[in-house]
Amino acid sequence: MTKYRLKDADLQHHLDAISDGEFSEALRSGIEFDKDGFAVVPFGSSKHDNNKALITGKFTVTLYKDEVYELADYDPNAWNNYPETQPPMDLHMRVETATGFKCCAEFDGENWMYRSVGENGVQGLRVLKNVVRYRPWSKP
């Protein structure tokens, strides 16, 4: 099945927030659109009665084909456009942003994270915005 991502990243973030990421997982698992261009996406689960009962498909969203874009397959041997391809998580990647900034970053499933050194010399993780492409990091 084809994998998708919502064009409205904020909506996808909110649907993931109420489902602990299960909405994005449902889109990555693949959905099928009917002949009219609609798809019903069930997502979200919860446990009840001291974990004896599991309710799945707690929420549903009806999507129209124009609200999503198809994710391309990740190619570890080439540059991959973001967000058109879903990067693997927690791997060092060579990343470029729309402004031309280049660095080593990791995708945590939601954000690109990179290490930066502040004025005080302390390293910290920061969110990297506007990533346009990435490829696996390789030593020069």
Helix content: 10-25%
Radius of gyration: 18 Å
Count the strands? Answer: 10
User: Pairing-aware structural class of the strands and helices?
Assistant: mainly beta
The number of helical runs is 2
Which features does this protein show?
mainly beta, 2 helices, 10 strands, single chain
Concise synopsis of the structure shown:
With 140 residues, this protein is mainly beta.
Describe this structure in words.
With 140 residues, this protein is mainly β. It has helices at 9-19, 22-29; strands at residues 4-6, 38-48, 53-64, 68-70, 80-81, 93-97, 102-107, 112-117, 123-128, 131-136. The longest helix has 11 residues, at 9-19. It is globular. The model has no long low-confidence stretch (mean pLDDT 88).
